[in-house]
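Dear U.,

Please find below the material for section 3 of the report. The protein was modelled together with adenosine-5'-triphosphate; I have listed the sequence and SMILES used, followed by the predicted complex structure.
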Amino acid sequence: MKISVQNLNMTYPTGKKALQDVSLEMQSPNFIGLLGPNGAGKSTLMKLLVAGLLPTTGEIQLDDVPLIKNEKKLKAALGYLPQNFGLYDELTVWQFLDYMSALKGIKESKSEIERVIGETNLIEKRKARISTLSGGQRQRVGIAQALLGSPQFLIFDEPTVGLDPEERINFRNLFSKNAQDKIVLLSTHIIEDVQSVCNRLIVMNHGRILFDGRSEELIRLAYGHVGVYNEEVQENEEHGFKVTARMNTANGISCRIIAEVLPDFVHPTEPTLEDAYIYLIEKGWKGQ
Ligand SMILES: Nc1ncnc2c1ncn2[C@@H]1O[C@H](COP(=O)(O)OP(=O)(O)OP(=O)(O)O)[C@@H](O)[C@H]1O
């Protein structure tokens, strides 16, 4: 499966330009982490990819056919967890998944529901009404419905919101297991969600793609722009840099900073993916 996005622009009726000249290619197998601050345009891109919105200009192609002419194929191949996924509160977990299976036209629905309930750790909750579930459990039901039918193209809009750290780890494993031969696009604010499992990262801000590549490449961009200094030895607040962490150490407070040019008193250090992400967003922010 191949999805290509060409020069996509999306302006909402309010005049808000949510996407500007976005182009990208996704080919299975591909596990893509979509990162970006609030309002970057991630959900808008996802809604366009599932044909839930039409772009103002530009085109999306599925296997070299425009999406609007290939919607049937898309629906058959798609598993989608939107950001604010409405669940039917009065249904039980099983009834809801049965209903979603029917909508998706899944034939062997019983075994398929059993499979996704098992994969999302919902076995004990299968007969529970959705209204009685916790936020994390509801999120798991949302993930379970997206996995029904083993779709080739999985889109998860902030799937780990509301999950506790242990559940997040379970889901990272589940996502990577499900990504084997598929295209998985996962948006998140949480860097650890994408660091270990995604083989490709796309960073967006202000409706544009700032970076598209491997996490190592993103980290490389931040080399020479991350450093530490001891706040008690050197008091500096206004040096045109961003302090990303303050740690109490035996020798005083150690500050970790990101800057285009590191001041003399700062010792350069190895960037993490989070540093690199912040560096990129800050740099892009200033329009560079
Ligand atoms: N229906 C809409 N009408 C007008 N503006 C919208 C609409 N939906 C989104 N926007 C705006 O478009 C921009 C991009 O929004 P979008 O939801 O795609 O961002 P996001 O990266 O998913 O953010 P978040 O992480 O907060 O979900 C934002 O400025 C948002 O306010």
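For the text of the report, you could mention the following: The chain has a mean pLDDT of 90.

Regards,
Y.
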